[in-house]
Amino acid sequence: MRIPEILSTDRILCNVDVASKKSALETLSKLMAGSEPSLTYTEIFDCLNARERLGSTGIGNGIAIPHGRLQHIKQPVAAFLQLKSGVDFDAVDQKPVDLMFSLLVPEDATDEHLQILSCLAEKFSDAPLITRLRLRSSPENIYKILTK
Questions:
Q1: Which domain holds residue 124?
Q2: Could you tell me the CATH number of the domain that includes residue 10?
């Protein structure tokens, strides 16, 4: 699965002002709820929040990859937030998170889910890419960086 197949510019927000992890997850949930008629804000938020209770998806260096599985979707869907300032996310390095890539996959897509997460973790280990994501301020520019 490639990023252009799961992400679009209408699910990318830049310079978002949120005060907490919960607010960031709420914003992601609202953003993703419009992507497919079968998805609701509440079920997305509950799914992402339940995953966070198992352990933070903050992978370090100001990045989080909130993710989960839902019955009602047929293919993976993603959203991206660039925050105005970092929020406490209980990340592995205890640093605030300011870049969030959220992923939802069908409930039975175990292998695909793990492959996408692995690809994202590798992509977000690229320091120059992270710097470019932090400097750009439009969904179109962010999309270009993420899909190269």
A1: 3-147
A2: 3.40.930.10
Residues with catalytic annotation? Answer: 67
Residue labelled with tokens 């998170």: 97
- Its pTM surpasses 0.85: yes
- Measured CA to CA, the distance from residue 56 to residue 58 in angstroms comes to 5
Burial of 12 (0-12, 13-18, 19+ CB in 10 A): buried
pLDDT tens-digit profile, the chain (148 residues) = 689 999 999 999 999 999 999 999 999 999 999 777 778 999 999 999 999 999 999 999 999 999 999 988 888 999 999 999 999 999 999 999 999 999 998 888 767 657 877 888 889 999 999 999 999 889 999 999 999 8
Q: How many structural domains compose the chain? A: 1
